[in-house]
C-alpha cells in the first residue's frame, strides 16, 4: 500500500508509518465538513491524525497514545507533514486523558483481536491485544466529545455487537454504519459506526466491497479512498 505524496507525507522508504486498511477506510469515511477540533484516540503512528488534518484544513487535530515509541514516531510524521502547526500529539493512557476542550469528531481504531495468539513483539501485542477495556475507550470518548459532536470507530464484526451494546448503555445513538467486506463472496469483515449524543430518527446504513470480482479494487473503494491511496486513483 502507498500514499500519494502530493498532499500526504509518508516516509514509506523508512517504514515510518504502517498503513492499515481499517484506518485508511475510517479516515476516508468520517465526515469533516466544518469540523474545528478532532481527537484521535490511540493515535499510533499518527495516520488518522494526518488524514484528518489533510481533509479538514480548518481543524486542530489532537491525538494521544500510551506507547512512547509510537508517539515519537507520530510526532516525527506530523513534523514532516504540511500541517505541523495543526497537529498535537502526546503520550497518555486512554484512562487518564483529560481534554482541555471538547471535540467535534473523536476517532477510534481501538486494539482488538483479543482472541488471537500473542505476538513476540510486546509493542505490537499491546496494539493488537490491548490492556484497556472497551468501556474505558468509550468513557474517554464521552468526556472528550462535544454535545453536538460525533464518535467514529472501526471494529471487526466479531466485536462490533459488544461495543455497540456498551455505547447504547452510555446514552450514545448510532447515526451511520458502513459494513465492509473484502469481496462479494466473503462475509462482512469490518464495520465503521458513527455515534452521537442526540437521538437519531434513522440510521444511515451503507455497504462497501473492497475488491470486485476481478480482484481489482472496486470503484466504491477507489472513490472513498482516492484522496490518499494510490490504488484509489485511476490506475
Explain this structure.
The protein has helices at 21-29, 47-55, 68-79, 122-129, 134-144, 157-169, 219-225, and strands at 37-41, 60-65, 87-91, 103-108, 145-156, 173-181, 188-196, 204-209. The protein is α/β, with parallel strands linked by helices. The protein has an eight-stranded mixed beta sheet with strand order 3-2-1-4-5-7-6-8. The model is unreliable at 1-16, 113-130 and 231-235 (pLDDT under 50).
Q: Which descriptors would you attach to this protein?
A:
235 residues, 29% helix, alpha/beta, globular, disordered C terminus, 8-stranded mixed beta sheet
Short description:
The protein is an alpha/beta fold and 235 residues long.
Nearest-angstrom radius of gyration? 17 Å
Strand ordering within the main sheet: 3-2-1-4-5-7-6-8
Q: Averaged pLDDT, please?
A: 86
Count the DSSP helices: 7
Distance, first to last CA: 14 Å
| Structural category | alpha/beta
What is the N-to-C succession of helices and strands?
HEHEHEEHHEHEEEH
Specify the overall morphology. Answer: globular
**Poorly predicted segments:** 1-16, 113-130, 231-235
- What is the percentage of strand-forming residues? 15-25%
Number of strands: 8
User: Which bin fits the share of residues in helices?
Assistant: 25-40%
The biggest beta sheet is recorded as: 8 strands, mixed
Amino acid at each position: 500500500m502507498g500514499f500519494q505524496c502530493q498532499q500526504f507525507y509518508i516516509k514509506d522508504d523508512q517504514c515510518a508509518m504502517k498503513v492499515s486498511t481499517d484506518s485508511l477506510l475510517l479516515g476516508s469515511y468520517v465526515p469533516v465538513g466544518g469540523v474545528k477540533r478532532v481527537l484521535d484516540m490511540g493515535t499510533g503512528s499518527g495516520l488518522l491524525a494526518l488524514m484528518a488534518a489533510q481533509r479538514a484544513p480548518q481543524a486542530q487535530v489532537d491525538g494521544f497514545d500510551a506507547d512512547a515509541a509510537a508517539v515519537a514516531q507520530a510526532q516525527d510524521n506530523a513534523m514532516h507533514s504540511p500541517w505541523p502547526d495543526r497537529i498535537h500529539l502526546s503520550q497518555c493512557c486512554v484512562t487518564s486523558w483529560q481534554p482541555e476542550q471538547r471535540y467535534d469528531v473523536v476517532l477510534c481504531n481501538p486494539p482488538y483481536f483479543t482472541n488471537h495468539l500473542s505476538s513476540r513483539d510486546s509493542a505490537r501485542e499491546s496494539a493488537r491485544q490491548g490492556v484497556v477495556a472497551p468501556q474505558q475507550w468509550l468513557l474517554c470518548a464521552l468526556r472528550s466529545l462535544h454535545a453536538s459532536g460525533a464518535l467514529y470507530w472501526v471494529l471487526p464484526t466479531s466485536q462490533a455487537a459488544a461495543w455497540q451494546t456498551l455505547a447504547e448503555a452510555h446514552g450514545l445513538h448510532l447515526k451511520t454504519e458502513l459494513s465492509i467486506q473484502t469481496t462479494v463472496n466473503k462475509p462482512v469483515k469490518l464495520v465503521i459506526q458513527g455515534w452521537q449524543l442526540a437521538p437519531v430518527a434513522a440510521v444511515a446504513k451503507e455497504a462497501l466491497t473492497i475488491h470486485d470480482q476481478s480482484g481489482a479494487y472496486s470503484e466504491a473503494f477507489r472513490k472513498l479512498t482516492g484522496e490518499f491511496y494510490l490504488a484509489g486513483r485511476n490506475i
